[in-house]
Design goal:
Elements (H helix, E strand, L loop, with lengths): L2 E5 L4 H12 L9 E5 L10 H6 L7 E4 L2 E4 L1 H11 L10 H16 L1 H19 L4 H9 L5 H5 L8 H25 L11 H15 L10 H12 L1 H6 L6 H4 L7 H7 L3
Parallel strand pairs: 1-2
Antiparallel strand pairs: 1-3, 3-4
The structure holds glutathione (GSH).
Length: about 270
């Protein structure tokens, strides 16, 4: 089996595939799969050669024995099918339906929300602070998927209301994880079994923490304990290797929790 992944160390969508590969026993350090880094800062994801394998102009792109697959959540489910052991899905139809409901929620709510502070606090000022309005608009035009996303922000990122809404969505996700733990006793989101949904949401929470937003779950002890357990798994160390955090790549743009709270009047 030959697995290759076009990815970026600090991309949350790549991280969730790396977590799942490691959970499936394919740590990259053993070279059971090959990682091709795509430099998002240099916009390599928009090069014609890359667009041929991923017309959406995003990472990750997964290549299994020559077959190209895109969309990170679909890739997680694919990995579950081709490497069924250890199982990362419940063994009942009801359990699987409930896990998929979680997965749709994670894709629809926190995945979208995390992009807002990521761009507002790091990527927009880093990539575009010196860009003219015309250059910024021209870049948005190049994006197969995210033109409107760029049009909602300026070269300096998003406004206060977009950030507040994103924080609300992340907070809701954390509250739901906390409530799930209280309901069934954990230790994982679906109960006793670690599933794809744990792998899927891990990079989003880790990103928020990395951006300084850990205060969003300060008063949610079960959620915080889940995160500690997640970070103790070998798959976490395999996926979040040195250099995988956005704060490591762009340390000059790091804001502390105190800065973030002060900026938006918490
Ligand atoms: N729905 C896609 C989204 C992929 C995506 O948005 N990837 C981000 C990194 S996490 C990306 O490539 N962004 C390009 C950029 O930063 O401009 C998936 O889950 O695979």
């Amino acid at each position: 089996m030959k697995i290759e992944m076009y990815q970026a160390p600090q991309s949350t969508c790549s991280q969730k595939v790396r977590v799942t590969l490691a959970e499936k026993g394919l740590p990259e350090m053993n070279k059971d799969w090959i990682e091709h880094d795509v430099d998002l800062g240099k916009f390599e994801q928009l090069e014609p050669a890359y667009l041929k394998i991923n017309p959406n102009g995003v990472v990750p792109t997964f290549v299994h024995d020559g077959t190209i697959l895109i969309e990170s959540s679909a890739i997680l489910e694919y990995l579950e099918e081709i490497i069924p052991d250890p199982a990362l899905t419940p063994d009942t139809a009801v359990g699987r339906a409930k896990m998929r409901a979680w997965m749709r929620y994670i894709d629809e709510v926190p995945t979208v929300a995390v992009r807002v502070p990521t761009f507002a606090n790091m990527l927009a000022p880093m990539r575009f602070a010196k860009a003219s309005n015309d250059d910024f608009a021209a870049h948005a035009d190049r994006l197969p998927l995210r033109k409107q996303f760029y049009q909602r922000m300026s070269q300096n990122g998003f406004g206060k209301s977009e950030l507040e809404y994103a924080e609300f969505q992340i907070r809701q996700t954390c509250e739901r994880i906390n409530a799930a733990m209280n309901e069934h006793g954990g230790p994982w989101i679906m109960g006793s079994q670690y599933t794809l949904v744990d792998a899927q949401v891990t990079p989003l929470i880790d990103r928020m923490d990395d951006l300084g937003y850990g205060f969003l779950w300060d008063d949610l002890p079960e959620m915080a304990a889940w995160l500690d357990r997640i970070r103790a798994r070998p798959s976490f160390a395999a996926a979040f290797y040195p250099g995988a955090r956005i704060s490591e790549r762009y340390p000059d743009f790091y804001r502390t929790a105190t800065d973030l709270k002060a900026e938006r009047g918490f």
